[in-house]
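Bench log, entry 3. Co-assembly request; chain sequences pasted below exactly as received.
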Amino acid sequence: MNAKKSDKLATGIIYGLVGIVVTILISLLGYILYNGVPDINWHFLTSEAQSFSAGGGVRDQLFNSLYLLILALIISFPIALGAGIYLSEYAKDNWITDIIRTSIEVLSSLPSVVVGLFGYLLLVIQLNLGFSILAGAIALTFFNLPLLTRNIEESLSSVPDLQREAGTSLGLSGWKTITKIILPMALPGILTGLILCSGRIFGEAAALIYTAGQSAPSVDYGNWNPFTETSFLNPMRPAETLAVHIWKVNTESVTPDAGVISSASSAVLIIVILIFNLGARYLGNKLFKKMTAAK
Amino acid sequence: MKTYDFNQQYISKIDKEIAISTDNVQVHYGKSHAIFDASLDFPRFQITSLIGASGSGKSTYLRCLNRMNDKIAQVDGKILYRNTDINSKKINVYEVRRHIGMVFQRPNPFAKSIKDNILFALRNNGINDKNELQKRLETSLKDAALWDEVKDDLDKSALALSGGQQQRLCIARSIAMHPDILLLDEPASALDPISTSKIEETLELLSKSYTIIIVTHNMQQASRISDYTAFFHMGHIIEYNETKNIFTAPEIKATEDYISGDFG
Amino acid sequence: MDDIQTRLQKSSRATRQDYFGKAICYSCIGLIILLVACILYFIASKGLATFTQNGVKFWNFLTQSDWKPGDVDKYGNPQVGALPMIVTSFSVTILAALLATPFAIGAAVFMTEIANKKGAKFLQPVIELLVGIPSVVYGFIGLSLIVPFIRGIFGGTGFGILSGTLVLFVMVLPTITSLSVDSLKSVPMHYCQASLALGATRWQTIYKVILKAAAPGLLTAVIFGMARAFGEALAVQMVIGNAVLMPKNLISPASTLTSKLTTEIGNTVMGTLPNNALWSLALVLLFMSLLFNLVVRFIGRRGNIKNER
Amino acid sequence: MKKKTIISSLLALGALMTIATGCSNSNASKSSSSEVSGKITAVGSTALQPLVEKAAGDFQKDNSKINITVQGGGSGTGLSQVQDGSVKIGNSDIFAEQKDGIDAKKLVDHKVAVVGMAPVVNKDAGVKNVTMDQLKQIFTGKITNWKDLGGKDEKITVVNRAEGSGTRATFESAVLNGEKAVKSQEQDSNGTVQKIVSTTPGAISYLAFSYINDKVEALSIDDVKPTDDNVSDNKWKIWSYEHMYTKGNPKDATEKFIKYMKSDDVQKKLVKDMGYISTNDMKVQKDAKGTVTDK
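Structure output for the full assembly:
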């Protein structure tokens, strides 16, 4: 077979594969949105979930998901940042670095059930946090850390060494060079990584069932003091997230409209991730443009 | 390939004030030996060129002078600057680099505005006085012959400049720090002839107030702008003399061959 | 003059900044290592209790196929044989990865090398979106679409490894694709241009230059996908049937490590054999992902060496 | 640097919050006013969780000083945590005596509801009534085709419940008489079982009454229909209690809450809404060994 023919054939095959992938992806998204979107309305988004009567909403679950996401990012991002900087800037090519990289990969390949159970054992029982947002956020940190670290490391490494040399040759400390010159340049990449992680956190259920719990006690959205029991910001309360809610509604709920709630919640989840995604993309582009183009 | 005797060496004595000198500098990359016994004195307020074939070690040597090789190579020997061995472990490398600036082969402005490119390092070194910053911004850009081209767009991103402008910005960024010595590693090799000649003019102006050491591939450039020239070959310094002597009457055969193009 | 000399010898703000920065980074890394050590310790100590406290023989655990931790067999030994679950876990993971890899890499090549900007711009967010769909949703779609589909074609109940594989295939597809895209993008542009300039066709360039250069990255992408498949619990649980039986074929109900773990952990009492046995499953899960990792790292390293030569 | 400071201050805030909530918790349980106050945590059975949650919500409206947190985790979790003393109430679908590793003597049982369970089959099977013995033979694997029971010529697909679950324990003790069930599919949750049975031809499993709907066929056993009335006089044999266990006799707030759970407010309304049967309606009682006596 000559080169031209095989080129055409291969291109054809790739188009075929992509076609199938796209069909799967689109029909999946379409299926979820088609089933869910018609049932989303203001009432659904702003009312409490009902245990056994129809017409419940997902207000608390939606808020819990977001709050948990934010808490998890607050905990994991700085650590991942430090670790990513270490790996891309300080790590020497030796066995210690090897061990570090292996541990991070181990962390990344941990099944979410195992993470959940570990969180349950250590955080919920040993440290006596109970099923709580905090325990959930820490458990999510386990997932986040390897992904974020890897992403930050890669984004940092992709900044040309010339920039590092520019910084150090001006007598700046390595730390200043990294944080003020390299990091801003890597920001768009880091941001994209954050989105992927956030998406994963948002959809995570297995690890949260055993850590953040499966109940959404009613909270007072007017109470801004996170130290009180009823405050919506209290990190020590159990919090069922949207993904866990979908799981629970599907598996144990006796609500008559479980199917509707489940499909509408799935659609809400996807829409939130979509908003997130687009928002961050816009932000990333804007950042990148601000750095490179004329004002 | 011709082989040359590395023991044959001609290093001329400098009778001017010395800005920086090296004494038996050795560089190892892992197991490979990159620089052998490099001992040179660089005169103050002069331009010195380092020439030689690719891989002759001239860039490696240049980078030793402000400790840019710290993370990648093992550098032994003494580097004397103001009677201090700056190659010692105890030395504060950041201070060294403040006094010995460097400009690289490819322009590497920060992804910031033109103004911030110049002022960023200054601010980090504790200079916060607005007037002083403004003064340094203006003089450094003027010294690098860039002021007229960018004075209206100081808030524009530096990445929007042309390659030659970016390189001159990098020079301005270095001299804004008021260094003693300016190291340039083939600063014009990535640029077109017009930008190159602009950079050369800039360097000649700067040599009045800075000691300049420049690595170059381009022998015409070396002969045009430099006062002294050192010829490197396979990690050895073969010959070091006033530029006019090197180019008209080299003492060593290898130098002659290199300059006449009958090399290797 | 003297001033500069003394400053050269004294530490400055920059030196302190560097110490500060290093301290932060090292403690972050330390924290991560500590976390990993913690996980390993906790799960190992729980999981090994089955063997140390309850006297189950490790070999039996790995090779026997009767799983009834609450009961004893006729010789009075507890019945904790995890072999069926181990085999099933491996089968679904490997099959799903085998199935997904060509699609994912095809899509990634399309997005990076073939498609115009619009095509890639459209596909990327869609794929990222899919990563965020909770596994429960995949599970229920699997239950309501894939299981009846399999039942219609192959007969039987529809529950089994094949359904699990198909669900996992869709689940790992976005993961593998988006990571493959990253690794293809990191191949320097000039490789591709050089090859095209030498008269190679686009396919030759992709196949011989780009895919080769990106091979370690692609491998990592596949591993990440496999890791996700291996550890996936809720979706698989719904379509695989959860029967602790040695899988005879691809359409008979089976059970993976994760599905067993999630269905039963809440029903057991901390410290008893049924509970410990489940932790042993978690340990196996942990150990296997560790092994996975090391093997692939090894392969990746060999690939790197070859490339360099 | 600014970003870093924000992140670190947020982190510090998080740590503070944790400490502070920890403190406030202990304060709350110490302070005793004339009105009963305190914090109750109830953990365990996911089946019982919605009922307790709802009841707790209503209860707190009148007892604002009592704070109740309800969490899932499964019966085993509930029992082991209440035994450890880490929670006040352990919810369970199963008698504590039936669980290995639980010392039932230390725990006090509060039966708050009765749940009836019925075998369900796919509508395809064509069978509506079986004898107890036939049911046993199906689940022990001796009868494998519906035609042996007068139904369609279709293989029987047994879907069992998760080993160790309360539902399975109840079913096996009522139906199997100590024999072992055939190895088969196992599912954990009512919702999933219902979905599987309704879509898989020839499938049989069992469900709590509240999950039985028109998508599946609930079987009568020996011509007794699975109804609440038949459960109350033990004509229908497959039923169990929902328990709330306390360590020792309940005190203060816990006592008040459990009293409330047994009161008519809960038993007459919530319990019925949930599809459970009120303990007050029962004419018989069952002990841990399964012996049924008149009340």
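Chain A has a mean pLDDT of 82. The two ends of chain A are 54 Å apart (CA to CA).
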